[in-house]
Amino acid sequence: MLEGLKAIGAGLGYGLAAIGPGVGIGTVVGNAISAMARQPESAGMVRTTMFLGIAFTEALALIGFVVFILLLP
């Protein structure tokens, strides 16, 4: 019984840990597209910054996944 609850808790924890990065990546990409539409001449710099932001935000989901794996038996 305890192992089952542990698995449910780990799964819920990872699910909640993935919500934040999902919203964050959506915000980063949306703002980058808006910036590129306003100033097309700086699209290269904005795109580079966008990819860095996506990478750092996705790291949060990967950390949540590692914790999920460590909590499973």
Would you give the CATH topology?
Answer: F1FO ATP Synthase
Structure annotation, total helices: 2
Largest β-sheet summary: none
Radius of gyration: 17 Å
Corresponding CATH superfamily: F1F0 ATP synthase subunit C
Uncertain stretches: none
Q: What is the percent of helical residues?
A: over 70%
Shape: elongated
Taken in chain order, the helices and strands follow as HH
Class by SSE composition: mainly alpha
Number of strands: 0
CATH class: Mainly Alpha
Distance between the termini: 13 Å
* Share of residues in strands: under 5%
- Rounded average pLDDT: 89
What is the count of structural domains? Answer: 1
Task: Name the CATH architecture.
Answer: Up-down Bundle
What does this structure look like?
The chain has a single domain, classed as F1FO ATP Synthase (Up-down Bundle), CATH 1.20.20.10. The protein is elongated. The chain is mainly α. It has 2 helices and no strands. The longest helix is centred in the N-terminal third of the chain and has 37 residues, at 2-38.
